[in-house]
Amino acid sequence: MTTMTQAPPQTVQDLPQVRGVKQIPVFEGFTSGHRTCQGCESALVMRLMIKAAGPRTIVVGSTGCMYVANTTYYSTPWVVPWMHTQLGSSGSAATGTAAGLASLMRKGKMQEEPINVIAFCGDGGGVDMGLSAISAALQHDEYNLLILCYDNESYANTDIQVSGSSPWGANSTFSPPGKVHRIMNHRWKKNTAPMLAAGHPDVRYIATACGSYGPDFTNKIRRALTIGGPTFIHSIDPCPKGWDYDPKYSHELGMLAVETGIWVQYEIVDGELILNGPSRAIARGIRPRKPVTEYLQRQGRFAHLTEEDLKFFQEKIDESWEKWWIPGIVPFGPQEEG
Amino acid sequence: MSTVAVEVVYRGIFQKTLARNIVRTIVFAARKEGKIGTAFGRYGDSPERNGIPAKQFAIVSDSPEELEENLAVYEAREVDVTINVDDTMCKGIESWAWYGLQPINALTKPGGTLIVTSRQTADALIEDIHQKDSAYNLAIVPASTSFSGLWVYKDDHTDVRILGALARVCPELVRLDSMLAALEDQGWGGLKLTSARNTHDRLATRPVEPGEGSEDEPFSFDLPGWKSMEEGLVIKGVEGGTGFRGGSLGEGYDPIKSNASGDTSYEPTRNAVFKKFSTRSMRPVINFDTCIKCTLCWLQCPDTCFDVTPDGLYDANMEACCGCAVCEAVCPVADCITMVNESEFNDNNSQWEHWTKDKDSYHKWMSELIQVQKEKDATRSHGYHSPGTYEAESEAEVALTGDDD
Lengths: 338, 405
What we know:
The complex is a heterodimer. Chain A is α/β, with parallel strands linked by helices. Chain A has twelve helices and eight strands. Chain A has helices at 41-53, 65-68, 90-106, 123-129, 131-139, 192-199, 214-226, 240-243, 250-259, 277-283, 293-296, 307-322; strands spanning 57-62, 82-85, 116-122, 145-151, 205-210, 230-236, 266-269, 272-275. An eight-stranded mixed sheet of chain A has the order 2-1-3-4-6-5-7-8, sandwiched between helices. In chain A, strand 5, helix 7 (214-226) and strand 6 form a beta-alpha-beta unit. In chain A, helix 1 packs across helix 7 (214-226) and helix 3 packs parallel to helix 5. Chain A is globular. In chain B, 28% of the residues lie in helices and 17% in strands. Chain B is built from eleven helices and eleven strands. Chain B has helices at 16-32, 64-71, 122-128, 158-169, 176-185, 190-202, 296-300, 326-330, 351-357, 359-376, 389-401, and strands at residues 3-11, 36-41, 53-61, 79-84, 108-118, 136-142, 205-208, 282-286, 306-308, 314-316, 337-341. The two termini of chain B are 40 Å apart. Chains A and B meet through helix 1, helix 8 and helix 9 of A and helix 7 and helix 8 of B.
């Protein structure tokens, strides 16, 4: 890609990979005093994200729980600079912030130093409304930035409306099961990270993540911020409000999403796919996938599913692991010869 | 000419349907007596969050003009009856739109009534409730806290029992017969009507004298008005963290590299105008002697509650903890972290400081609390656990109240 104005060569911070929980920094950039639900996994994702990125970071957040619950009247839990942007504009705001920093540094109005730029969005802001802006941001390879989509599988802030990321069959205020029609959300969850990876082959880093795996999460944020260019991370965030479960199970449900094979943990680094943690063990046949019922039956949003529905859900997951070209990730494949 | 106002204070999301059923039925019942009313939620509580205290109101008047006059406010200035559906909120409530702690009886009129669902005694509750300079009445509906969820209606009779109690303490709002008729209109006959009537007949009310109750000063903050806000609505960030209890972070401190395996003690600076602890209905009690310093409670806490102590332990800050119990769930050591009902505590003091000062005294305190918790609350009712959770809890609750005889 050629541009008329050359951005200065960007440097990145030294953010070493961690080996285990004990190397995760004590630094806190997202602190107590936010109005999220008890057991909010997305708040944990914010906290882990900024722990990994460190204090020389600017965070931009599009509308969603992590905006509304964190910034009511004149107060904030953020230690680092944070700014709100509109629902669909996490991508544009990230590009603009990175471009602004580059410009100020080029003009000598700001000291030259690598500053992390992270824009976050929920699944409503990222998977639905902001997809085009994220795509645009991922094409601007002259800027270093990270877009983090925290996915709690519904518009949870406004009391649980269906999003493109909501799973099949889930109860929500837009898909309440009734006596005549039990399944009101017929759509299968959008396959966001692979779509962005396939569509933006020059992007050096795209990953999926889960806050239940602290060191893995920290390392992914750090890789995304140090590899250069625009990057994208999609994290699955159990939501006690929208999924209807005891808040104490947030951590466990994140792990179950991975262990059942419903959520696949991977990184795509310079075009190479690397599976992580339990997902890698499942793909290699080292550990079996847990039945999806272990995950689904722990959540009130699936309480209305019948045996038949649970079987259907299991078959869809089996199919994604057994029939897809790249198991759990890429559904289509080349035409079979002959 | 008269207006009667009722507020229901409830745990956001967990009790939203319960609160709505109560305020809505009040209005239906009032219509039976030719009055007019409106039921509504407090605007600033929406969107609700799990556990964060919220309010819904029912206002009933003789005429539409009078009703409108009372609706043109954000929150009623005073109410005839305050209904509190979770007794741990007797310590006061910090809504997410209200900076500072509001006593549970703040809006209760002189001579009005506070109805609480609780299995505690009146004296135990009054110990927690902030004192007022006017007399009011305390009525207890003996019941466990009814937690369900956003779309769930947990049919454990809590709603009808409260409505029965309401007709008893405030007959000028609606009489029992109108209330029962409104319940029947909603399809709640049989056992539920009996529950409502029995609660009405058996309700015990205790007068609370001026000055009786907790002497704690509820915390409050000065809010900047729009003229004193900074340009562009810029809000100052929270200061970076310090060493434990405000100490130095040391010369070698590096925010990228200093971690929990080193000897770095750390205390995050916290948002100064929102504390969140009134969201809590349980709190973690930590056994520091069996702690293996695995870091998981600290690492997985969504609310940044844990301070890293100089001896490498993790001390939960009780002004920041909202009681989600993730720390209890992730702790790999049996009984190292136990969630104990909030009503067992009278302060937010540091457990680590208590333990450091006197280990024997701490152990005694901790063991007693864990024992009490095990005896009192064998089943936790903090939302959905598995298929049939709500149904089983509802049946158990109805059997326990004995109102269906």
